Amino acid sequence: MNMDEIPPADELGAGVIRRRTRLADGRELIYYDDPGTTLGPERSVDARDLDPRPETATMRQDVLSGDWITFATKRQNRVMMPGADADPLAPQTPTNPSEVPSRYDVAVFENRSPAFGPALVAPTDTAPAASDPPRGLDDMAHLGIGRTRTSAGRCEVVCFSPEPEGSLGTQSVTRTRTIIEAWADRTATLSALPGIEQVFPFENRGEAIGVTLPHPHGQIYSYPYITPRTQRLLDGIARTAPDLMARVLESEQASSRVVLQNEHWTAYVPFAARWPLEVQVMPHRHAADFTELTAAERDALAPLFLRLLRGVDALYETPTAYIGAWHQAPVHVGRDTVRMRFELTSPRRAADKLKFLAGTEAAMSAWSAEILPEDTAERLRAAIATVPEP
């Protein structure tokens, strides 16, 4: 039976309490307690006998595109849709030796079989040095046949709730505010790790997206390079103007594609949406990532975010699968021009139809859309109108 400990506690914004500890194999585990939580300060010690963590994966460069591909072969055998009695993200019980030893509100821990890490570009007190690490952005941008690097970085799991089923949209405003505080705290911590160039919080929701666990959770990837999508954005800003994102927001706010808005945030279907369902949320003031949001902006985000997610689920009689992606500025470049934004995309184009990426999209990245963004916005506004204020 697990013994108890009292991990060191720190108070973050909005009354959220952070408690740091470790799992049996040395991985970091961080608890984020809701303000007014019913949990005590004690946390159970992880007493499992775990195998050593797998070696850090390797990246190979596609010289024709410049993209880096991570080969994380250990992920091939990860758990697929277990029952509630074997949920690896639920609090541990005598019959379920899960990843989280204690009851929790929100919990974040290092992925056991990550796409990036546990090795980093340089060693820390929690991670070894990679054997063949990336050597900075110029090194990653250089093109050559047969180039490889160790997939240095960090991947974390963010458990939104101890309950076995649900999603981010099923949480309370208080819990969502705790999750926002956790995203901000992890963005700050991960951005400070050696060699990290971009931090990406996201939620995969639904089997149609490829989700392998029904437990309400998201992930955070910390990359040793700037991702291709963000690199294209940086190129676009360089070709137009430093205030491009502010101008995009102004254009969207003047359109018929706005679906939700408050003092600090606007949610809209973008002018050139690729997916049948695509929504972006952008702050009215420039903020490069979660760390730069004010307390008022974080407070305003929680209810708007929940209402948007619940409106998406109100479109049909069954929940809609989606990818919820927080695009943040790179750690070291573009922070004055790249504004953070949330992007929700779903392949669901009708109650019983999905958009599959066929030849033009999958092979050529040349998109063909079946639904006008203005029509999507109208339907989504109507769905959101049926959702009570959270």
UniProtKB/TrEMBL annotation:
<feature type="domain" description="Galactose-1-phosphate uridyl transferase C-terminal">
    <location>
        <begin position="252"/>
        <end position="382"/>
    </location>
</feature>
<keyword id="KW-0548">Nucleotidyltransferase</keyword>
<keyword id="KW-0862">Zinc</keyword>
<dbReference type="InterPro" id="IPR005849">
    <property type="entry name" value="GalP_Utransf_N"/>
</dbReference>
<protein>
    <recommendedName>
        <fullName>Galactose-1-phosphate uridylyltransferase</fullName>
        <ecNumber>2.7.7.12</ecNumber>
    </recommendedName>
</protein>
<dbReference type="InterPro" id="IPR005850">
    <property type="entry name" value="GalP_Utransf_C"/>
</dbReference>
<comment type="pathway">
    <text>Carbohydrate metabolism; galactose metabolism.</text>
</comment>
<feature type="region of interest" description="Disordered">
    <location>
        <begin position="34"/>
        <end position="54"/>
    </location>
</feature>
<feature type="domain" description="Galactose-1-phosphate uridyl transferase N-terminal">
    <location>
        <begin position="86"/>
        <end position="226"/>
    </location>
</feature>
<dbReference type="InterPro" id="IPR001937">
    <property type="entry name" value="GalP_UDPtransf1"/>
</dbReference>
<keyword id="KW-0299">Galactose metabolism</keyword>
<feature type="compositionally biased region" description="Basic and acidic residues">
    <location>
        <begin position="43"/>
        <end position="54"/>
    </location>
</feature>
<dbReference type="GO" id="GO:0016779">
    <property type="term" value="F:nucleotidyltransferase activity"/>
</dbReference>
<dbReference type="Pfam" id="PF01087">
    <property type="entry name" value="GalP_UDP_transf"/>
</dbReference>
<dbReference type="Pfam" id="PF02744">
    <property type="entry name" value="GalP_UDP_tr_C"/>
</dbReference>
<comment type="similarity">
    <text>Belongs to the galactose-1-phosphate uridylyltransferase type 1 family.</text>
</comment>
<keyword id="KW-0808">Transferase</keyword>
<dbReference type="InterPro" id="IPR036265">
    <property type="entry name" value="HIT-like_sf"/>
</dbReference>
<dbReference type="InterPro" id="IPR019779">
    <property type="entry name" value="GalP_UDPtransf1_His-AS"/>
</dbReference>
<keyword id="KW-0119">Carbohydrate metabolism</keyword>
<keyword id="KW-0479">Metal-binding</keyword>
